[in-house]
Amino acid sequence: GAVVSQHPSRVICKSGTSVKIECRSLDFQATTMFWYRQFPKQSLMLMATSNEGSKATYEQGVEKDKFLINHASLTLSTLTVTSAHPEDSSFYICSASPIDNQPQHFGDGTRLSIL
Amino acid sequence: GESVGLHLPTLSVQEGDNSIINCAYSNSASDYFIWYKQESGKGPQFIIDIRSNMDKRQGQRVTVLLNKTVKHLSLQIAATQPGDSAVYFCAEKREGDNTDKLIFGTGTRLQVFP
């Protein structure tokens, strides 16, 4: 149980393109989902907390107009990287927890490469 | 042994030996800790967790030790296998605005050789 699915797993696109990444909880409902970014050989850095039915909470230094988050239902959150540039190339990972105070379960990530 | 440099700290162990991966956390108010295993190209996978009211918890082949006095967490893997090769992260939970969020440590790469 507690499966989190991300799509797509890999995106390669030109600079200036906007890219949408989906995160779904397959067998549970999640009022809260989390979006992380991971650069090579580094740890996961929390970008934002996605809240169903309300605005996302962004971490310091993360541009909310650059990284648009929508949590339209209890099983789906989307991250849109707007006007992506090469420096946005990274591994984006989402997570969700079926119950508060229980471990977060992670998707398998999306490798974003901006040319 | 361990090495720290421009890359992730790496722990190299021989198959069958026990592994100990260490983690220092920063917030004395953190009350929940998790160890994750991340294989190449995949998301982190839950291994074991521990709450601050405990100092030890055991799972299958894994043990987590928590020392709140020095804010230190360790993961012990018994009889390490090639399939254990991965990057291991500790994560601490801090109270967020409306929900709890995890803060990840820097990670340790475990390499298992025959």
Question: Key features?
Answer:
heterodimer; A: 115 residues; mainly beta; seven-stranded mixed sheet; four-stranded antiparallel sheet; 0% helix; 51% strand; B: 114 residues; disordered N terminus
Architecture blueprint of SSEs:
The complex is a heterodimer of chains A (115) and B (114).
Chain A: E1 4-7, E2 10-13, E3 19-25, E4 32-38, E5 44-51, E6 57-58, E7 67-73, E8 76-81, E9 90-96, E10 105-106, E11 110-114
Chain B: E1 2-3, E2 10-14, E3 19-24, E4 32-38, E5 45-51, E6 56-58, E7 62-67, E8 72-77, E9 86-95, E10 100-104, E11 108-113
Parallel strand pairs in B: 2-11
Antiparallel strand pairs in B: 1-2, 3-8, 4-5, 4-9, 6-7, 7-8, 9-10, 9-11
Would you mind describing this structure in some detail?
The complex is a heterodimer of chains A (115) and B (114). With 115 residues, chain A is mainly β. Chain A has no helices and eleven strands. Chain A has strands at residues 4-7, 10-13, 19-25, 32-38, 44-51, 57-58, 67-73, 76-81, 90-96, 105-106, 110-114. In chain A, strands 2, 4, 5, 6, 9, 10 and 11 form a seven-stranded mixed sheet that branches. In chain A, a hairpin with a 2-residue loop joins strand 7 and strand 8 (76-81). Chain A is globular and about 40 Å long. The model of chain A has no long low-confidence stretch (mean pLDDT 93). By secondary structure, chain B is mostly beta strands. In chain B, 0% of the residues lie in helices and 55% in strands. In chain B, a hairpin with a 6-residue loop joins strand 1 (2-3) and strand 2 (10-14). The interface between A and B is medium-sized, with 26 and 25 residues.
* Termini gap of chain A: 37 Å
Question: Can you tell me the residue ranges of chain B where pLDDT is under 50 for at least 5 consecutive residues?
Answer: 1-6
Structural class of chain B: mainly beta
Name the shape of chain B in a single word.
globular
Radius of gyration of CA atoms of chain B, rounded to a whole number: 14 Å
Count the DSSP helices of chain B.
Answer: 0
N-to-C span of chain B: 15 Å
Oligomeric state as shown: heterodimer
Largest sheet of chain A: 7 strands, mixed
Residue share in helices of chain B? Answer: under 10%
Rounded mean pLDDT score of chain B = 89
Largest sheet geometry of chain B: 7 strands, mixed
